[in-house]
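User: Here's a protein and a ligand (calcium ion). What would the complex look like?
Assistant: Let me lay out the input and then the predicted complex.
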Amino acid sequence: MMWRASLLLLLLLLRHRAQGKPSPDAGPHGQGRVHQAAPLSDAPHDDAHGNFQYDHEAFLGREVAKEFDQLTPEESQARLGRIVDRMDRAGDGDGWVSLAELRAWIAHTQQRHIRDSVSAAWDTYDMDRDGRVGWEELRNATYGHYAPGEEFHDVEDAETYKKMMARDERRFRVADQDGDSMATREELTAFLHPEEFPHMRDIVIAETLEDLDRNKDGYVQVEEYIADLYSAEPGEEEPAWVQTERQQFRDFRDLNKDGHLDGSEVGHWVLPPAQDQPLVEANHLLHESDTDKDGRLSKAEILGNWNMFVGSQATNYGEDLTRHHDEL
Ligand SMILES: *[C@@H]1O[C@H](CO)[C@@H](O)[C@H](O)[C@H]1NC(C)=O
Ligand SMILES: [Ca+2]
């Protein structure tokens, strides 16, 4: 029942969002439609002023970065030293940290929130605790235990739920690559976080097209794109932000300028090609710490620039920044 309640909440949020004001950066589509890896950190990347909050969160993850801020400088450096060993051991173990090892570490750190969310879902879905999550288990946990044919007979919006369930099942079948109707952890991750998996791209595009393509011609016209965001009240003049969205559609969504979006243009929009953020950050940390310029980092080089990698009690700008943020 709890899950059904949260589903209702989601529906309400979706409806609410359709009437909300757009944020200037993401655009009103940004929140719901676009699947994108989260930034490594929300802090400004402000090294020039000795503010390494961004690097700390990229390197350690937000939660662990906070833990480090409570450590003495000595403890903090000691823990960093152990991380250096782990980074190297996870790679070729040659005693230096290479760009690839640094990148792999940051990528692993950043996957933590995905692993955590999948673990939480796993505990909810694997009701018989047999270490596998079947479609029926997931369905029962999400939509309630209905006998076949009686789905949603007791709720008002039955058709909406039926559609959502059918859609979930279809996505589950795509995520379930070996087709045994049982999701492994990897397969459940693909179901929940399709943006991480190239083989989920087509299903996300298909779902988006289904939502938007009202005249069922297989394309998204500008009116369909706008209808996802805004419906005019009779006699109301179209607000400026909607005009901006029309412009966005022409300038950035309709890449081949044929007046509508095909599947590949929808894909470019909802699953945009992403920069390799961990690689960019790894390059940055390496460049800033590689004192002998041999293209790899010794433990001494990393510890010599430890303030950039991790914080400690001596690092208090993070707290100041947070406080400042809260006041705003
Ligand atoms: C799901 O619920 C239905 C209806 O109560 C039940 O027949 C079925 O065995 C359940 N499936 C699982 C895997 O728990
Ligand atoms: Ca259409």
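Summary: Confidence is low (pLDDT under 50) at residues 1-26, 318-328.
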